[in-house]
Amino acid sequence: MTTHLESALRYLVRSERSASRPAEVYLEPTNRCNLSCASCPRTRMDRPVGEMGLELFHHIATGLAGGTELVNLYTYGEPLLHPAIDRMVATLAGLGIASSITTNGTRLDRRTSELLVAAGLSHMIVSLDTDDPVRYRDLRRGGQFELVIENLHYLAEVVRTRHAPTVVHLSAVLTDQLKSHFGSFVAFARTLPIDGVRFERFIDVSRDPSLASGSLVATCASAHTHFYLWRKLYVYWDGHATTCPYHLWTFDEGLSDGDLREESVETLWNGPVLRARRARALAGEPLAPLCEGCGFPPYPRAAIAVKALVHEKTFISCLMPTLSGALAHLDLRRS
Questions:
Q1: Backbone φ/ψ region at 232: left (φ over 0), alpha (ψ -120 to 50), beta
Q2: What is the pLDDT of residues 269-306, one digit of tens each?
Q3: Among the four 24, 113, 130, 252, which has the fewest Cβ within 10 Å?
Q4: CA–CA separation, 293 vs 108, rounded Å?
């Protein structure tokens, strides 16, 4: 039984324990970034800025072996700014753990592509958001549209010449600007050497009404949103862990699940803090005061069951009976 399936079953039978390790982990190499993107909540983040040391990374990674199926080397920040990102990928590959990186693409030059593909990267997601260079400058302040496209071609060439299994996706946030030229963006994406496009819902973690219009569908908290407590763990560059995917601020608001500088993943994952959170989630209680009025979208039980059987990062982004779910993954693979 896969960890994804076991964690889903434990959630569905209302157990306070999950599998021995999280099925999927978001591990933050750094929260530094070289861009200031309009749709990125990082601009409102007040956590300290830094990068994960290799000693801490190895401690966490070895603790994931034997259970965790996918590590996303990304939370907030640009992961390619970390000087040892390729060594992180190689370590995970050596442990039998798939790896994924989400990047703005500005640092994805030919040498970086070669290093990452050679290290065994499973999945690369390049964020673009538009096919218009002028709109791009507005959305991704500090970036160069033409450079990102050039780097995408470098990556595709490296994957092809090495006959590597690395899957390459484009990612776009469904903002009002993208919706206004959705057709041209899809047509442009079809000209690129990629495997597909992931459309990400705009989620306003700041609860700022001036930003809410970017959401394709209304978002609201639900009991099933808490499935994350059984399946995913987010680890920031300093070792602090949380199961809240959109927690940007300090941990004074009660959302810290532990510190992996001081304990192992296995101990934390089914330890007293997370078991208590799962118990509150099963009882329909908020996990912390900050959770009241959360803008994270609902997670139907049917979606949970299917996501346990489908490898999310390669094939599907989200599964909801809404238009956003239907558009979550646009397959552009060529026969």
A1: beta
A2: 999 999 998 998 888 777 766 666 555 554 455 555 55
A3: 252
A4: 38
